[in-house]
Structures are given as structure tokens and as C-alpha cells.
Design a protein that fits this description.
461 residues, alpha+beta, N Utilization Substance Protein A, Chain:P, domain 4, OB fold (Dihydrolipoamide Acetyltransferase, E2P), GMP Synthetase, Chain A, domain 3, 4 domains, 5-stranded mixed β-barrel, 4-stranded mixed sheet, 16 helices, 44% helix
Length: 461
């Protein structure tokens, strides 16, 4: 069958469609061949597999039944034995394909409509695949879309030109309000496959939006001289961004702020007034933490390891506590996320109260220790008047004296009484020694908790 499209050949017509739809010519040709094969199969009511080929240069269509040659036939509709295959093609071999030509001259209007339907479906599938491939590679990038409608559940639908995107309600900033027709910048966070086509998912709350906005405003970030180490946000309210420079002559914070703050103000305007703290990254966790908790002035920071993450115990002056914690705890929350560790902030008054309470407990423990070590021999279970008199005449008055004069005890007292007395005294003295050891451990733990090691101490200048 030979086809013609006006004065142009079919090949030129097909190329015009691929250019208009921005599709791959080979994909569209394959789709058209599948459509014609489906039309031929329906026209002749065939059960066997049908294939079609199009010669673009000549504008010719060829259709044929295709069966594979196998040693043992399992599906008679799609397979031939070698003997059957040789009836159609004397050169047939195991593994080859036998083609039986089918005339395409008799294709009618219904077959043409079916071919058109299949073709349009394949074109839509190709367009969807192209959109998916394009946007799946752009995850993390900023796009600008026009707000077309707002769904009942609050999701916003944006027109990106080639496709529509959704800005889910959970990815919207609560303080931002938009109207139909508004232009909205958002970052692509996901591209999902759907029966109706690819769904591009956007976000206005993701930290990647903040990073990309700074990359757009600061050439030093775009060219890699200044690197954004981390960025965290409380969307619509406050954000912190940690940056460092690969060039010692370039100030990373200054590059983000810009002349008279123009760069950071441009980012803040796009984020509808969200306050942004720009912090220089440091490998020294104490220096990094001190800067991350700005604008609060830090008195002391100590580091302890709890599991995989370090914990920072931070002490500030009383008038700096609310500033360090921030509104709704935002400052300490963002600083903790930025650094990647837990932060516990206390004022100097709170620390003093904890120290006073700890010392009071310590004094009580010392008193108990002293009482234990000065227990008199009168309290021994086997003590009687004669035994007490004998021991005191020998200068033995307490359980400690008994332990220190164990050999003398065995000389003064005969039988099992001496052994019972020594065992009682050792038990009393042992309890006293355990309390003393506990006192020392307690003091060391208290010192480490309140002040940290010398290497972990940071004093505010």
C-alpha cells in the first residue's frame, strides 16, 4: 500500500508531526507501525501476531504475520515448527522469524480510525514519558508556574507550560496567600507516574528551595567557590544556612549577604519575609555551635557523646536564655538541626541551683560515710558487757578499730565470737568505703556535667 499526504510524502508529514510534538521520530514511527498492525489484525480478524513496516522514503506500508521457528511448538498462534516454516520459507531455521505478507489495500475507514486511535494513544504515552524523563532529572531545581486552580483539599495546581504540577497543602507555607493567576516559584521534590500522566510535585517549604535561591543570587555559590554545607528552615518564620569558602580570599558569609545586604534581602523577599541567619561552617563543633546559636552570647559549651550523635551542654547568662532558645524554641531547634546534634541550654542561675542541690546531696553522703566508719563496738550483734570492756581496755572502740587490729582481736577473744566480730566490722567498713568511692565518682561526674573537659571549654570574650 502506498500513501500520500497532499503534495508532501508521508515521511515529510511524519517528520512535521514529530517536530510539532517534540517527539523522537523513531518512537513515533514505531507507534504508527503498531497502530497499522492493530488495524490490519482487526480488519482481517486475525489471532496471529501481526507486524507492520513503513518505508518513509517511498511512503509504502507492508504488513505481515510473524511467527517464530522453534523445535517444539507450544503456542501455535505465534510459533512454527521447522517443517511448517519451510512451507513458507525454504531458508527458515530454528530461531528465525517467518513472515507471511498481508495485503493492506483493503483497509477501510474503521481500520483507519483504529490506527488513528492507537497512534494518538502512543503519542500521548510518548509525550508523558518525555515529560517524566525531563522533570525527573530536575528534582531539586526551582521552577516557576502559574496558579490555575486550588483543589478542595487545598492542593494548588500550577501550569509549568509543558505540564501541570501540584503544590500539596503540606508543602505550602501557612503564612503565604495566593490568588488564581499568580506566578509561584517552588522546588521540584518528586515526579510520580500516574495513569493520567506524570505528576510533578513541588514544595515551598523544602530547604532545597532556600539553597537554590542563594545559588541564583550569589555567583560564588553557583561556581562552587562558596559551598552551602547545610540549610534548615521553619518555613515562613526563620531559617539558618551554614556556608564555607574554598578560597581563603572569599568571605562565604559576605558572599551570601551581598553589597548592603541585597542578595539575602532578595531571598527573603521571595520567601515572604522569612528571617535568615547565615553562619560560617566550622569543623570545630564548639565554634560551629556558638555561631549557630547567634545572636545569643554563649558563656560555656561542653561536649558529651550519647550514642552516634554528640550532645552539647550550653550555658548562657540569664538575660541570654530566651534569646538562645528563641521564639517557640526555633533558635535552638534550628541550630540543633544545622549542627546535627542535641543541644541542651541552661542559664547560669539554673546551673548554680543544680550545683547547690548536688553539693547538698554530696554532704549528706559524706555524713553517712562518717557515721558508718565510726560505728561503736557496742552495736555488734555479739556484743555484751564483758566483751565491750575487754575491747575498750585494749583501745578498740569502733568497727574501724576492729578491722585494723584483726590479729589482736583473735588473741583477746577466743572461739567463734572473734570471727563473728571481725566479719561484722569488715562489713561496716566496706559500706563506708563504697560511699567514699561514690562521693569521688559523683564529684567527677558533676564537674564534667557542669564545666566539661578543658579541651571542650569555650569562654565568651
Amino acid at each position: 500500500m502506498k500513501i500520500q499526504a497532499g503534495k508532501e510524502t508521508f515521511g515529510a508529514y511524519l517528520r512535521a508531526i514529530t517536530k510539532e510534538k517534540d517527539l523522537d521520530e523513531s518512537e513515533l514511527l514505531e507507534a504508527l507501525e503498531d497502530a497499522i498492525a492493530a488495524a490490519v489484525k482487526k480488519q482481517y480478524r486475525l489471532s496471529e501476531p501481526v507486524k507492520a513496516e513503513i518505508d518513509l522514503d517511498k511512503g509504502e506500508i507492508r504488513a505481515y504475520i510473524a511467527k517464530k521457528v522453534v523445535e517444539e511448538v507450544e503456542d501455535p498462534l505465534s510459533e512454527y515448527s521447522l517443517e511448517e516454516a519451510k512451507e513458507h520459507d525454504p531458508n527458515a531455521q530454528i530461531g528465525s522469524e517467518v513472515r507471511i505478507p498481508i495485503s493492506t489495500e483493503g483497509l477501510g475507514r474503521i481500520a483507519a480510525q483504529l490506527a488513528k486511535h492507537v497512534l494518538m494513544q502512543r503519542i500521548r504515552e510518548a509525550e508523558r514519558k518525555k515529560v517524566y524523563d525531563e522533570f525527573s532529572k530536575r528534582i531539586g531545581e526551582i521552577v516557576t508556574g502559574t496558579l490555575r486552580r486550588i483543589e478542595q483539599r487545598g492542593d494548588m495546581i500550577l501550569d509549568l507550560g509543558r505540564t501541570e504540577a501540584v503544590l500539596p497543602r503540606k508543602e505550602q507555607v501557612k503564612t503565604e496567600k495566593y490568588s488564581i493567576g499568580d506566578r509561584i516559584k517552588a522546588v521540584i521534590i518528586d515526579v510520580k507516574r500516574d495513569t493520567s500522566g506524570p505528576q510533578v510535585v513541588l514544595s515551598r517549604t523544602d530547604a532545597r528551595l532556600l539553597k537554590k535561591l542563594f545559588e541564583k543570587e550569589a555567583p560564588e555559590i553557583y561556581d562552587g567557590t562558596v559551598v552551602i554545607k547545610n540549610a534548615v528552615r521553619v518555613p515562613g518564620e526563620r531559617a539558618k544556612i551554614a556556608v564555607y569558602s574554598r578560597d581563603r580570599d572569599v568571605d562565604p558569609v559576605g558572599a551570601c549577604v551581598g553589597m548592603r545586604g541585597q542578595r539575602v534581602q532578595a531571598v527573603m523577599r521571595e520567601l515572604k519575609g522569612e528571617k535568615i541567619d547565615i553562619i560560617e561552617y566550622s569543623d570545630d563543633i564548639i565554634t560551629f555551635a556558638r555561631d549557630a546559636l547567634a545572636p545569643a552570647r554563649i558563656t560555656r559549651i561542653s561536649v558529651t557523646q550519647e550514642g552516634d550523635k554528640p550532645k552539647l551542654d550550653v550555658i548562657v547568662e540569664d538575660d541570654q536564655l530566651s534569646l538562645a532558645i528563641g521564639k517557640k524554641g526555633q533558635n535552638v531547634k534550628l541550630a540543633s538541626e544545622l549542627i546535627g546534634c542535641e543541644i541542651d541550654i541552661k542559664s547560669e542561675s539554673q546551673v548554680k541551683e543544680e550545683v547547690a542541690s548536688a553539693l547538698e546531696m554530696l554532704f549528706q553522703m559524706e555524713e553517712k560515710s562518717e557515721e558508718s566508719s565510726s560505728v561503736g563496738i557496742e552495736q555488734a550483734p555479739i556484743a555484751d558487757d564483758d566483751l565491750v570492756t575487754t575491747l575498750k581496755e585494749a583501745g578498740i572502740y569502733t568497727a574501724q578499730d576492729v578491722v585494723e587490729n584483726e590479729e589482736k582481736i583473735y588473741q583477746l577473744i577466743e572461739g567463734g565470737k572473734s570471727k563473728s566480730l571481725v566479719e561484722w566490722a569488715k562489713e561496716i567498713v566496706s559500706e563506708s568505703q563504697e560511699t567514699t568511692t561514690l562521693d569521688t565518682d559523683f564529684l567527677e561526674a558533676l564537674k564534667e556535667q557542669m564545666f566539661g573537659d578543658d579541651s571542650e571549654l569555650e569562654e565568651d570574650n
